[in-house]
Amino acid sequence: MRYTRSLYRSLVGTYVALVVGPLAAALAGASGVVDPWISLAVAAVGGGGLGYWMGGGLDVERFATSLALAVPPVVLPLGYLVWIIALLAHNPGISPLTLLVRPATLGVLAVAPAVALVELGTRSVTVARIEAATVLHSFQTRPDRRERLTTYGALAVGLGAIAGLLGVLVLLGQASIAIVLGTLVVVPLALAVLRSDDRTVVVTDAGLAVDGEFTGWEEVESYAVADDSLVVRPRGWFTDVYRLDLSSGPDPDQLQSTFENHASR
């Protein structure tokens, strides 16, 4: 599936609007000259239009596959969390609804289009590389037992930490805000982790793709094929090690032969 340029431009426009709008509102509120909401609306419309225009020249595939380019736009909107924390500190009785409609909350939401751009760009690159190659194996699987245990353990630790923070809010008399934040954070986190149990693997003569992440044979540092598992270690510091269950996948001997013929060259 190839994603259209207009979708990329729309995501860039949305991102710029959500980042610039709240900043303009903050500056207007500090100056006291212009109404913050008017400033937010004007800046969001102008920034969104500028972002849409700039998105036409953005190399999304290069952006998505470069760690140095992809991380800053995703992390930047999280700075608005400082604004939200300040609001909570100075307004102990603030209601969840009031908190949700603050400009800072809109700023944090800019993370969504940034992540979407990275995801769509990565998948676009993967689809293009698969289309240009010969598919040797294609199958559905899941992580092996070791990775599943690690994932569930990390989820339990993360949920425990979040529960502790929400408990502090409850003790401070902010139970309603704790419920809202818990719903917005815990549910998506749990769903994202549990969905990660499914893996789509495509092995080609140019490399292998696991859930939209393509790794060329020249990027494979090591691999191990067993009767019930496949472990692939790509080169680099910030890369995933793929540990896949082969109990219902392709014949391990055929897979071993494919890796020997391509990854070992």
Strand order of the largest sheet: 1-2-3-4
Kindly provide the name of the CATH class of the largest domain. Answer: Mainly Beta
Question: How does the overall form come out from the CA principal axes?
Answer: flat
Major sheet details: 4 strands, antiparallel
N-to-C series of helices and strands: HHHHHHHHEHHEEEEEEH
**Mean pLDDT level:** 79
Strand content: 5-15%
Poorly predicted tracts of residues:
none
Assign the structural class, choosing from mainly alpha, mainly beta, alpha/beta, alpha+beta, or little secondary structure: alpha+beta
Tell me the number of helical segments per DSSP (H or I, 4 or more residues long): 11
**Gyration radius, in Å:** 23 Å
CATH topology of the largest domain: PH-domain like
Overall domain count: 2
Give a description of the structure.
The structure is a single chain. The chain has two domains: 5-130, no CATH class; 134-262, PH-domain like (Roll). The protein is flat and about 70 Å long. The chain contains eleven helices and seven strands. 62% of the residues lie in helices and 14% in strands. A four-stranded antiparallel beta sheet has the order 1-2-3-4, sandwiched between helices. It is an alpha+beta fold and 265 residues long. Keywords: Membrane, Transmembrane, Transmembrane helix. The chain crosses the membrane at residues 12-31, 37-55, 67-88, 100-120, 149-171, 177-194.
Which terms summarize this structure?
single chain; 265 residues; alpha+beta; PH-domain like; four-stranded antiparallel sheet; three-stranded antiparallel sheet; transmembrane
